[in-house]
Amino acid sequence: MSLEKLITATLGMALIGITHKVAKVIRQNNKTAVNEEYYYQKKNLQSPKKARLIQ
Predict the structure, then answer these.
(1) Three-state SS across the chain?
(2) Quick check: 2 and 19 in contact, CB under 8 A?
(3) What angle do CA 24, 26, 31 make, to 5 degrees?
(4) Contact present, 41 and 51 (Cβ < 8 Å)
């Protein structure tokens, strides 16, 4: 196994790990944003005629 292949494999593994971590953070951030928006609408928009709640 050459040094170039070893470096390429190491960089590939690192990229896979980083991509997985970033996707997890983005998914959690989206979930938090949806929950915050839902509770904001529920608290501040009492009348269903003003806006429909997104559940």
Answers:
(1) CCHHHHHHHHHHHHHHHHHHHHHHHHHHHHHHHHHHHHHHHHHHCCCCCCCCCCC
(2) no
(3) 95
(4) yes
Whether 28 contacts 36, CB under 8 Å: no
pLDDT digits (tens, 9 = 90+) for 4-16: 999 999 999 999 9
pLDDT of residue 4: 93
- pTM for the model: 0.59
Report the alpha-carbon distance of residue 44 to residue 55 in Å, rounded: 15
pLDDT in tens, 14-28: 999 999 999 999 999
Burial classification of residue 41, based on how many CB atoms lie within 10 Å of its CB (0-12 exposed, 13-18 middle, 19 or more buried): middle
